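retry 2 of 3: previous attempt timed out while embedding magnesium ion. Reduced batch size to 1 and resubmitted. Inputs unchanged:
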Amino acid sequence: MAKKPTKLLYTCQTCGFQTPKWMGKCPDCGEWDTLLEEVRSAAVLRRATTGSTVGASQPVPINAVDLAEAPRLATHINEFDRVLGGGLVQGSLVLIGGDPGIGKSTLMLQALNAIATAGRKVLYVSGEESVKQLRLRSQRVAASSGNLLVVSEIDLDAILAMVTKSAPDVLVIDSIQTMFSAELTSAPGSVGQVRESTMRLMLMAKNSGVPTFLVGHVTKEGVIAGPRLLEHMVDTVLYFEGDRNHVFRILRAVKNRFGSTNEIGVFEMKSQGLAEVTNPSAIFLSERPENVAGSVVTACMEGTRPILVELQALATSTNLGTPRRTVLGLDQNRVALLVAVMEKKLGLHLTGHDIFMNVAGGVKIIEPAADLAVMGAIASSFLDKPIAAGTIAIGEVGLTGEVRAVGNMEVRLAEAAKMGFTRCLAPAINIQRLTEKQQLAVIPVGTVAEAMEQLY
Ligand code: TYD
Ligand code: MG
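retry 2 succeeded.
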């Protein structure tokens, strides 16, 4: 009997779960009506079951591994290079995720143009825009290098043939959700297509050494396969985030096989494209109101860089039985914990108050070093007393009301002094360890009560 050439598989469009039998509810993620039929051709099945198509590799002693790898390829956009860990590694696959309209295509075009201007041949494949639209965008951002090749294509086989033929130094696929592999019958954007396309691009990148960027959209509904599914397949995952109502964009590494994941790059969206922001503190503090209750500045570390941000709080009396705690840009649980400490240790009656908190400029803070500033802002709004101009607060707060030490104190203080702050509340333990003389007055605080006394 002849072997069946194809096999039917049902794939969940939300999580990628596969089963040979159709089901109404995905047993893996619990979503209803998400299983779609996908026909896999014999070739794909063979590849999936026998491993890869790459030539057989041999194990080697670790001390015999040749380290003379090609140097990293700079994108010539400093903020971008730093997030990548010092430039692009040969053969790496980099996923750039982000909400639609945040500026991914603009960033890619500008980075490719910079690489092209430095004399490299680069290829930009767009599945979303025509070459005319790309040209219009390139005029807007003044990207007009003759080494920048553009093409509008969604057929993966055609793209791979193009890469083999034109041998670019860098490749961009915008976006992975629009790519289509003829081996699968499902529509572009389905989990199967996205996974298949990524796998083939990964093999291409590893075999040819061409660094490849994949642009991916994140959708909340999960109907279209989000790039989250791909995060384990690629070498580096970068998220381009920011509030579309703000001009600031933050490029953040959430996974990087070739560098640190703490680094961020800050950009500003202008009418002629993205501009690097080399001094983020100045930008994030630019609209800060002086002498207004509810605003405190703190210094956070983003990778190796200190950034000054303004925390804002609004405490208003409420009739609700359970007062609201609405928090943007900070951890909600952390704020709730700090409010509890304030009630117990400072005797502030916040139970009758709704509390709203925001980090100005659309930044997200995950560091506990902002604790003291969070408390300062809430207390300032609650008491309706502004804190003295030129004051900044740094420190982690424990459950017993103690102010705990934070790392990188010298760097944070230097940044604060650079931005014109004259007074800093800092953990007493940190101050004892400081060796050099500081350019601003450092006030040691051991408990939150001491800190509040100093602030008000
Ligand atoms: P885009 O790069 O198309 O976003 P994505 O690829 O992530 O969907 O950016 C689109 C937005 O950026 C759009 O709202 C217009 C704005 N924009 C500028 O403000 N200035 C510019 O120079 C460009 C090219 C776009
Ligand atoms: Mg785009």
